């Protein structure tokens, strides 16, 4: 999966031999927008539920969808299979909680950009080309610019964004392990279920401490559907109709989509310096993908 990662993505896929279809492009656009609009919608419930409460609801929605799709045979899992699934469940929950806490503190655009450093680091670490060193420098320059000292700088919020990046990178690596040990989407579905179970006490505490309003609960459920269910199901289609390089290239645009949705939907405007910094991070990934060797 991609930014502000929704539910766990399928761990394995086959590279399509055909070119990107118009339907595949439309699906990627829809998935990206759904993901960011879902995150923005979830933030509307923060005043009542807080980021923790919203993430709890999102985990429940993700687990429901993934269980229906993956249908994991839990009783047949061996301990060798359960180990990475347990780690993936912890990472999945921590990743979403970090992202939503960062969104609450620094805004959607900056939070998603910082989290995007996770998959970018994975991509750049896989090669030793000079162009990738340049890409790493571009991304680093963007991050330093975003985190430059200012009176209004929220380093805690940015720290949560960077924690989300670490979690997303871990998520990618764990998904590979899970995919190699458990067929299909069963491992991802099991991880989503465990993550939802872990958040049950959190959800109960939030309900008892801050009884949700109908509106806040609706926003949280909508976030789960738009940022978990829709992207996951759409990506199942997209990865069968879009080459992996094109898919990765479009995912690079997610920080831009997040900044756009944050500006239009939440009134979270960014200055030209922040915009240029986000552009540097996005550009680093785009350059790495466009110059990669097949």
Automatic annotation (TrEMBL):
Keywords (alphabetical) are: Membrane, Transmembrane, Transmembrane helix
Residues covered by the EamA domain: 157-287
Q: Where is the composition biased (Low complexity)?
A: 1-14
Q: Which Pfam families match?
A: EamA
Protein name, please? EamA family transporter
Assigned protein family? Belongs to the EamA transporter family.
This chain's source organism reads Streptomyces narbonensis
Residues covered by region (Disordered):
1-23
């Amino acid at each position: 999966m991609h930014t502000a990662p929704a539910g766990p993505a399928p761990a394995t896929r086959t590279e399509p031999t055909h070119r990107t279809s118009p339907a595949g492009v439309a699906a990627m656009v829809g998935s990206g927008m759904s993901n960011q609009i879902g995150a923005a919608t979830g933030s509307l419930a923060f005043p009542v539920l807080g980021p923790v409460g919203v993430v709890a609801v999102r985990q429940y929605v993700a687990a429901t969808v993934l269980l229906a799709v993956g249908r994991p045979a839990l009783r047949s899992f061996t301990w060798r299979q359960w180990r990475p699934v347990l780690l993936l469940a912890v990472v999945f929950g921590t990743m979403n909680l970090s992202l939503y806490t960062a969104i609450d503190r620094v805004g959607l655009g900056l939070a998603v950009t910082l989290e995007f450093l996770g998959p970018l680091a994975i991509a750049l670490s896989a090669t030793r080309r000079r162009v990738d060193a340049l890409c790493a420098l571009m991304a680093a320059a963007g991050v330093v610019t975003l985190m430059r000292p200012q009176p209004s700088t929220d380093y805690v919020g940015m720290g949560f964004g960077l924690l989300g990046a670490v979690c997303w990178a871990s998520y990618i690596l764990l998904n590979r392990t899970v995919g190699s040990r458990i067929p299909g989407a069963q491992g991802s579905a099991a991880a989503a279920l465990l993550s939802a179970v872990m958040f049950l006490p959190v959800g109960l505490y939030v309900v008892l401490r801050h009884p949700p309003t109908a509106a806040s609960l609706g926003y949280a459920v909508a976030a789960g559907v738009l940022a978990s269910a829709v992207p996951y199901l759409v990506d199942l289609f997209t990865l069968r109709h879009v080459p992996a390089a094109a898919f990765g290239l479009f995912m690079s645009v997610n920080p831009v989509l997040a900044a756009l949705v944050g500006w239009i939907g939440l009134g979270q405007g960014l200055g030209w310096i922040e915009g240029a910094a986000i552009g540097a991070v996005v550009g680093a990934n785009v350059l790495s993908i466009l110059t990669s060797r097949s």
